[in-house]
Amino acid sequence: MKVLTVKPLIEREEALKKLKKLRKGTLKAVELLYLPFWCFIFDLKAKIKKEVRNLRAAVVIDGVLGEVALYDGELSDLEGNLSEVDEEKLLPVEINLDRKKIVEEANKELAKVVYRKLKFVSDMSLTSSKLIYFPFWIGYFHEKGLIQIDIVNAVSGETSNPWCIRAIIRGLVMKHLHKSP
Known about the structure:
There is one protein chain. By secondary structure, the chain is an alpha+beta fold. The protein has helices spanning about 10-20, 100-115, 160-180, and strands spanning about 1-5, 25-50, 50-60, 70, 80-85, 120-145, 145-155. The strands form two sheets. Strands 4-3-2-6-7 form a five-stranded antiparallel β-sheet. A two-stranded antiparallel ribbon has the order 1-5.
């Protein structure tokens, strides 16, 4: 299936090293999965020290939990590439908000952060929005008789992000339920 994805920058071997440092249990399996996010890029005009500057910012809303956040990675990552990805590796989009509501949520989140940090913003306009899939390495651990998971963001290398772990667990459950007869 062809979808817009962010290219993984963290290789499997590097992810394995990071995952093994996170937990004491036995690492049973590792896989690369893609979590859906709606991405919104905004152009801003802000007055900083008496100078008007053109800025760009991005807000993401995950497609599983509907959580909203200011994107702190490289904006160039959000360009994405149309990639052929095995459908089994894509977590389902569970939050089906209408476009108007999604844009409103993104606008609110950005306004909250921007006005708190910059104070003088004269213009803020949405320049692009798209659904894009971000890669995460998932480690499955056998620990005290239970299967636990931990993650490595395959773009930034960040580990153990609680928001992403919750979204991935829910995505895996929903994916399993969609398969069930």
